[in-house]
Input
Amino acid sequence: MKQKGFAPIIILVLIIALAAVGYFGYKNYWPKIQKIVVYSPAPSVTADPTTNWKTYTNTKYLYSLKYPASFTTGLQSAGAGNKEADPTTRNLFIYKSDASEPYIERYINLEIFQVKPTYDKKMVTQTTLDNQTVEKIVIPGAKFDIYSAQVGTKDFIEIYVSNDPTRKEVANQILSTFKFTYPSEASTKEDKFTAPTAWVKFTTQDGLKLCLPPKWESNQYGTLTYNRDTGYQPTVTIVQSIPYTNGSYADAYYNFWKQEYQNVSQLVTATQTNINGHTAFTFTPIGEPKSSPEGLAVAWYASGKLWKAGLSNWSMINSSQTAFLKDFYTMISCSF
Output
């Protein structure tokens, strides 16, 4: 009976011994797991190739652009020779300083026109340059692509960009640095569009609130006419809301007219405008105002709707247009 009492003790000792052996083996002989640390390489930063380029600024036509330090800005007008471009020139050429034939070997050139050049509409598309909508003209077989835009209130600029395989890359890098340096509507102070106390508040039949300056009249059809004097009678016709759910205001405007004008986006230039922190689009006819849906026009979002207004149908590519647009932006500033 006493021998049976020793059995559990012996079994317990054996278990403890086996556990000790197992622990000793694990600590000393079992392969140890190594921590594997994977280091991700730091994201590469692509250097801006234009960082150390020179800058040319035109103070008369209000634009600037950069060009490689080894290049020259030149004048190629009659009698100018290879004279370095001044800050008021109408014609600017950029080429390598060691070019044997600068005119032929130019990478890019810019020219100012008082009358907007016209092209076959099949060659014209719209793109952006310095956040402004401009035209791009691609003429089959030509050695240069053309970018066309309005500068200031009465001039037009055409930028000729070489598409020669040996110059195309640098030419487009130069183009990418182009800036309009005149004050844009988007950069104006918010108090620029504040209605004077003499202006009166007006609500259209559709519930749109506007502020009207003195001498404005409205008829039963919703047409507003500014009768300041006989030589300046612009009108705001058919102020109305148009279908809109989301996306670009400009696209909604194009969709509104596409049944009547399938190529409406090629008939007008759309420019984004900031009105006291609110976005609007101004549509300017590319050619004759009569060829576009309604001449000069503006689209903006207020009171849960997208509105559009066709402005005076006569061409105001002069100081009158600037004054009238400023008046109109102030008018619709009261709708927000």
